[in-house]
What does this fold into?
Amino acid sequence: MHISHNEDNNLKRLLSFSISSIKSMCGNFEIDGKTDIDLRAKELVFERTRYAYNDALEYFEANFLTEINTLGLDISFANEDDEDATI
It folds into this structure.
């Protein structure tokens, strides 16, 4: 990405949209977290933002479908494990 000082607000906006989108597709994660799930989710956020920045967002889901599905399943399984641990 060609980042200049003037584009800070645009990039922040694109990043916030990407965080919301990935959470909607895959489930909740911590963008500043250190777990494997959090790091993989952060990578998808950056990739989606890159696609949005380059006006190619329509290709993101098809190109990252495996990663999106895998992350979604891993988040779901992690949530199930957390629920089972509290029972």
User: Anything to note?
Assistant: The first helix runs from residue 8 to 26. The radius of gyration is 14 Å. The helical segments are 8-26, 36-53, 60-63, 65-86. The mean pLDDT is 91.
